[in-house]
Amino acid sequence: MNTNTSLKLYVLLNKGSGNQQSDLEKLIRDFYRDSMHTLHIFTLSRRCSVEEIRQDIASFGPDRLLAAGGDGTVKLAAECLLETTIPLAIIPTGSANGMAKEINLKNNIKVALELAITGIPKPIHVLRVNGELSIHLADIGINARIVKKFQTLNERGMIGYAKAAWQALKRHKKMHVTINTPGKSRSRKAEMVVIANGTSYGTGVKINKTGSLFDGQFELVIVKWFSILELLKMCFSFKTRFNPFKTEIIATDHVQLTTRESTFLQVDGEYIGKVKQVEAELIQEAIRLVCFDERT
Asked: What CA–CA distance (Å, rounded) separates 13 from 10?
């Protein structure tokens, strides 16, 4: 280990995330076995609540919390750490791991376990979207419909997402949406509207080219028209700007969305339901996320 400080590490463990074939708890215990750090593992179950986890965290009094799972586990950990100073470290074991990619953390568990103790905690903002915590990306429209379909399939990863996308696209129609930000109202016809705290979906699609977890604002990405060129820009070309007639980006700290038709809403990869109104607001410096030290 690269630190001489003994740390109390609280592990929020989701054994069912992704396509884990190995014993994740054993891997974590073995990694820290010869270190001076103290380990406490809380294994998630369907019955546990945020309040139960918060009480367990408070009882242990950790120096850092390690979220071992996918984006849903990271979101749950963030919910538990709001209004605390305990840093959150990501151990990416899910199917997509979008939040890990935001901090350039690849799907290497041993690298993540090392970063959990050597990384630098940095404050990031999060969102409240219709009362739901969002640390990454929420949206209404076609992608939320795909997420709904994806959750009904047995296949995970890109194969499952592709099947869900094919089935959702066959029934998709554009939506009419009114977008109210402080001081301005706009009406648009769109395929989807993304409420983006982060930049990229776990699939690698870079939907928000101007965003950051650290910039004090979030972005609305209004996808008015899908085209092959725009999709290629999202998938492969970070520096090339979107066509503003097809994809519009608005930076804000608060938004109200109203749709003419009921439409699908997802928050951080979790399907919420059909809605006609969405409100999102920024929470500044909500949690401290363990990141790589950019100076090294």
From this structure: 9
Give the C-alpha separation, 74 to 285, whole Å.
16
How far is residue 117 from each of residues 8, 105, 121, 205, measured CA to CA in Å? 10, 14, 10, 30
**Structural domains of the chain sorted by starting position, each given as residue range(s) with its CATH number in brackets:** 8-118 (3.40.50.10330), 132-283 (2.60.200.40)
**Which amino acid does the sequence have at 149?**
K
* Per-residue pLDDT reduced to its tens digit, 73-123: 999 999 999 989 999 999 999 878 899 999 999 889 999 999 999 999 999
Q: What are phi and psi of 205, to 5 degrees?
A: -70, 120
pTM of the model: 0.86
**Within the chain, which residues score under 70 in pLDDT?**
1-4, 18-21, 150-172, 226-245, 295-296
